[in-house]
Structures are given as C-alpha cells and as structure tokens.
Design brief:
The chain is an alpha/beta fold and about 675 residues long. About 60% of the residues lie in helices and about 15% in strands. The longest helix is centred in the first third of the chain and has 64 residues. It is rod-shaped, with a radius of gyration of 52 Å.
C-alpha cells in the first residue's frame, strides 16, 4: 500500500467515495419493498373511494405504479453490472429522485383530511403515512437525502392539513404527527451515522486486509524473483550453470535407477573474445543474446539450453542414448550459429565448437560427465573452429598427458633441461656458412630429446613461452658473443620468436636491447624470425612492436614464407631483411609442378622487392640444384647439417664451409622430427 493509500485509511474523509458506494449498495439492496407501496396505494384508494371520483384514484394509483416501476428498473440497471465508486453519487441521486417522486404522490393522500370530518379516515391516513415514513427511515437511512426526499413531501401535507382543521383534536394530531415524524427522522440520522461508520470500518479493514495481502503477494513475488534470479542468467535470460548442474544431477540419479541415458553438450563461441574486444562489450552482450536465441530455436523440442558463463552454453538432451541423434542436434546448432548475425546494424560471423558426453555405466558421478564434455569441447577447439567432438578415452589420455607435460615444462627451466641446437645456413655452391638458426630442444628426463613442436604450442597457450623465450634469447646472444670472441661468429644468428612471446610479453624489446648491450653484439648480427601469422596479428595494431625491434638495428626475417597469410602487404609494410621459403614447398622439388611453380614465383617476388632469401628444408641434391638454377643460392637443411649442439656447430664455424664429407655424414643422421 502506498503512502497515499495509508493516509486514506487514517483519514475517514478520504474514504467518502467508497463509503458513498457502500451507502448506495444498501439503498438498492432494499428496493424489493417497493411493491409494498403499490399495495398500500391500492388499499388507500379502496378506503377513499367514497371521497374521490374513480378517475382521480385511478390516476393516483397509476402514477405511483409508473414511479415504482421506474424505480425497480433503475434498481435492475444498478445491479446488472458492477458499479465503480465514482458512479455512486449519480446512482444515489437517481434513487433520491425516485424516492422524492414517490413521497410527493403519497403527500397528495393528505387531502383526505380536508374532505371529511370522519375521524376514522383521519386516523387511517395518519396510520398509513406514518407507517410509510417509518419504513422509509428504516430503508432509506443509508442516504439522508433519499430519506428526507421521501419523508418530507409525505409528512408535511398531512401535518399542515391537521393544523388547518378547526377541531382542537386535529391540532393535537398535527403536533403528535410532527413529533412522530421528527423522532423518526432523528432515528434515521442516527441510523445513517451508524451505517456510514460501519461502512468506514469495513472499508478500512478491507483496505488493511488488501494491504496485508498485497504485502504478502509482493514478498512472495520477490522471493520467487530471487529464486528465479539465482537459477537464471541475467544477460541471456536462460537457466544458469547451477540450474544446468541440477538437470544433470537429477538425470544422473534417474539413470542410475532405470538406466535411462542422456547427453550433455558444452558449446563455446569461436572468436567471441576477438569480437568482444574489437566491437565492444555491449556488442558482445547483444551477440550472446542473439546466439542464445538462435541455439534455442535450433534445439526446440529436443533439448534444453543453459548459459554456463562467458561465451559458453550447455545443452541437456534427456533420453538420448544414440550417438547419431546427438550428432544431428550438434550439427543443427553448428549450422544455425554459422549464419551471419546482424547486431547494432553490423554483420558479424561467428562459429561454435561443441563437446559431447553421453551418460554411460562407467560414469560414477555427474561431475565426471561434465568434465568429459569439457574435455571434448577442448578437443573441438584444438581441432579448429566450427567443430564438434565426442568424448573418448584417447582424448582423455591426451589431455592428462598435456597436463603432465605442462607440469614438467613448468619446472624444466629450473632443472636446466632446455638446450639450443644450431643449424647452419649455407651459400651454394661455395658451401660457405653465412649464418646459423638457433632451434630450441627440451632434453626431457624420460622422453628424450624433444623438438619445439612437442612443447612450444603448449608453452604459448599457458604463457610459459615468455620465460622460455627469454632464456633462449639470452643464450643465443651469449653464444654469439663466444663465437665472436673466438673470431668465428657467423654474419647472422637467427632466433625464432612466437606471437605470444612478442605481443604478450611487454618486456621483449627491453630484454633484447639488454642482451645486445650486455654481450656487446652488433644488432645486425641477430635475426628475429617471425612467421606470417605473427605479421598478420601485427597488421591488426601491433606494428609498433616490430617497429621498436627494427629500431634496435636487428634483422627481421619472415619464416616459413608461403604457409600462412602470404601477402605483398607484408613486404610493403615491414622492412624485412630476408624471406625464408617454407620447407613444405621445397620438399616437392624438383618433380612436383605445383611446388616448383610456387618456389619460382616466390623467388621472383623476393628478387623484385630486393630482399634476401633462403630456402629451408633442403635434403636432396635435386632440390639444391633446382633452387640454385631458379636463383636461390642460400639454403638450409639436412642435406648440409641437422641442427646440432653449439659444440658441434662451433667446429663447422671454424672451417667456415661445409665440405662434401660433412654433407655425407650429416645426410645419414636425419633422425630428428622435422619440427625444427
């Protein structure tokens, strides 16, 4: 109840419209006695038939019949439908008008007192009119104007007629009649006050009861809203993580009892973080709502959806044991999300990755089912965008191995398990060593020597690439200084740098500058090798990082050119010193026409831009001859030397060239996985 409504309960005057409505209800509740008026009128006319012409009596009785009929019709109208409080005054006035008209007609009957001296007629008419007034006081007291409207015109003519007669007894009758009428009216006033007071109390109690009921309703609604909020995601309006867990837990218990199967799907929007950061969080929120609605439509009548958090959703499929049925639902979701979204006037494309876990007898807890769905989602994300994966034991083992590998990788620096191998870069046909590329190796205590492909992706995902990369950079610079002190330092010492290392480690440039200064190295002797994917990320706003590296004076090389996002834009945007042709194109030489075409085109392109070039992965004399004839004299690969520890490459640097004997011995040692 509002403050104004409470004030109405405290101030009775504020309840007048409602009180009047209650008064009117009482008035119209007593109209059933109106026919008594007609009965008394007929009786009076019969008694007075000797005093009046018949037509006068018929006219009088007929008029009363019309008035009573109209009043009964008015009462029917009032009762035919609920009446608002603001209409109460109108209905009260209509009732008063009818009562006044009836009183006026009854007042005409007082003319009997003037037409006859027979006291029996006088007593009769006084008795009839007194009874009518008493009945009116009893019935019409709910509304004083109605009571007075009937009583005054009914009583006044008879009282005046008694006083007009010459007999002393008539005057006495007039006084007695006036006193009687006044007493009745006073009783009517008191009855009116009682009715009004009762109405006020009842209305006040009803208002208080309504207020209490409203408070209870508001509290219950608030509790329901709170309970709903605790189970609902506020952004999307979907059930939240806790509700989803309840679904799975309840289904798990049912599955344990009757063996009923069900499936859990975890969904994750691909590229959502990128969209959120690029277009803003408001845009991202709208995209989440739109995606939730679209997924809900795709699974309608087959499954239930909840928002787990962030850009992740959960799908619960009850009574779903067939892998084909679950896969069909997953495919519907993938297709629905793949269609473009129009958000805030902009069109955006996202995809979804899905991990699926189906309940089975080997699952001992609902948490295990959710864990398996999460693992399957991880596998789907690792496989690329727009993928779905079902949980498998093989995936589980792989994840456990990755977890173990992460723990081992996390302590590998402390245990000094990393080492650097170097692969010579050769100018042909002179065989002169023009540089070396540093390649990281992990000397794992149980798995042996691991190439970077076995652990660098994990290091990048977990952030360990930053300390590992800093260690590698420092050791490359120190090794270059040792070679310089020995007078055998090659013109170029290359080191690979990943995107995660370059753009997430804000101190990379300062680390590089410090190592160059500490080792007193010519910056141009160090070459930072970046892949095209790194350069693609740079074109999206990180060009300043590469510019700062260039400002130090170090060389920049594009590694594995042609395997990523090859574009002339990179050669125009970045002042790269060297292009390294990817091993996968060199491998097809000289017999594969496609590889030959790509290599020739790359060599021609690099020559036009005036950059240095080097071909990676040279393993055969045929490959070497093709490259030299095509115009590329700088090569690197197992044909000359596998990546070897610093001690071994130092011996090669002392000679300065690769001899035929060196080529033959190294060609037989191609045992390391070519992830270098």
């Amino acid at each position: 109840m509002t403050y104004e409504e409470r004030a109405q309960v405290a101030d009775p005057r504020a309840l007048d419209p409602a009180v009047l409505s209650e008064q009117v209800r009482v008035l119209y509740g007593s109209t059933a006695v109106l026919p008594v008026n007609l009965l008394n009128a007929v009786l009076t006319a019969w008694v007075a038939q000797s005093l009046y012409p018949r037509w006068v009596l018929l006219l009088w009785v007929g008029s009363l019949t019309v008035i009573v009929s109209l009043r009964l019709y008015n009462s029917w109208l009032y009762k035919s439908e609920p009446q608002p409080d603001d209409a109460a005054r109108r209905w009260a006035l209509r009732f008063t008008a009818g009562a006044t008209a009836t009183g006026c007609l009854w007042g005409l009957s007082a003319s009997i007192l003037l037409l006859t001296d027979d006291p029996s007629f006088h007593v009769f008419i006084a008795f009839v009119l007194g009874g009518m007034i008493a009945g009116s006081v009893t019935i019409d007291a709910a509304f004083l104007p109605a009571m007075l409207g009937f009583g005054a015109p009914t009583a006044m003519p008879a009282i005046l007629a008694f006083f007009a007669r010459p007999e002393p007894t008539s005057g006495t009758m007039g006084l007695m009649s006036a006193a009687f009428v006044m007493a009745l009216l006073l009783l009517g006033v008191r009855a009116n006050r009682w009715i009004v007071s009762l109405a006020r109390r009842e209305l006040a109690q009803a208002a208080l009861a309504a207020d209490l009921e409203k408070q209870i309703e508001v509290r219950e609604k608030a509790e329901q809203e709170m309970a709903r909020a605790m189970r609902t995601d506020l952004l999307s309006g979907l059930p939240n993580r806790e509700t989803f867990k309840e679904w799975v837990t309840e289904a798990f218990r049912g599955g344990e009892k009757d063996g009923a199967s069900f499936a859990v799907l975890y969904l994750d929007l691909d590229r959502f973080k990128e969209v959120n950061e690029t277009l803003g969080h408001s845009f991202g929120d709208e995209l989440l709502r739109a995606a939730a609605e679209r997924i809900g439509q795709a699974i309608r009548n087959t499954a239930s959806i909840a928002r787990i958090g962030g850009d992740e959703f959960g799908i619960f499929m009850k009574d779903s044991a067939r892998r084909e049925a679950v896969d069909e639902v997953a495919e519907k979701i993938i297709r629905s999300v793949a269609a473009p979204f129009t958000i805030m006037g902009k069109q955006v494309h996202v995809s979804v990755s899905i991990g699926v876990s189906i309940f089975g007898a080997t699952i001992v807890a609902p948490e295990e089912l959710l864990r398996r769905a999460d693992l399957a989602l991880y596998e789907a994300k690792s496989a690329g965008y727009n993928q779905r994966r079902f949980y498998s034991e093989a995936h589980d083992r792989a994840v456990r191995e990755r977890v173990t590998l992460f723990e081992e990788l996390n302590s590998a620096l402390e245990r000094e398990e990393f080492e650097l191998h170097y692969q010579p870069e050769v100018e042909w046909p002179s065989g002169r060593i023009i540089g070396v590329e540093a390649l990281l190796r992990w000397n794992h205590p149980s798995r042996g020597l691991l190439g970077p492909g076995a652990f660098i992706p994990l290091a990048e995902r977990t952030g360990l690439i930053t300390p590992i990369g800093a260690w590698a950079l420092a050791n490359v610079c120190r090794q270059a200084r040792l070679w310089r002190d020995l007078g055998i330092c090659p013109p170029i010492v290359g080191v690979n740098v990943s995107a995660a290392q370059l753009f997430t480690a804000s101190r990379f440039e300062s680390d590089l500058a410090r190592e160059l200064d500490m080792c007193d190295l010519d910056p141009s002797s160090i070459e930072i090798e970046l892949t095209e994917s790194v350069l693609m990320q740079s074109s999206r706003g990180e060009t300043t990082a590469i510019d700062r590296i260039r400002a130090l004076g170090v060389r920049i090389a594009i590694d594995d050119f042609g395997t990523g996002y090859s574009s002339l834009e990179y050669l125009l945007t970045y002042r790269v010193n060297r292009i390294k042709i990817a091993q996968q194109f060199v491998r097809g030489l000289p017999h594969d026409p496609g590889s030959a075409t790509i290599v020739r085109a790359t060599i021609g392109l690099v020559q036009e831009f005036g950059c240095e070039m080097l071909a990676e992965g040279v393993e055969t004399v045929g490959q070497l001859d093709f490259l030299v004839q095509a115009g590329c004299q700088s090569v690197q690969g197992f044909y000359f030397s596998r990546p070897v520890p610093a001690e071994e490459v130092t011996e090669l640097l002392r000679r300065g060239v690769i001899s035929p004997e060196d080529r033959a011995s190294n060609h037989a040692e191609m045992v390391l996985v070519q992830t270098a």
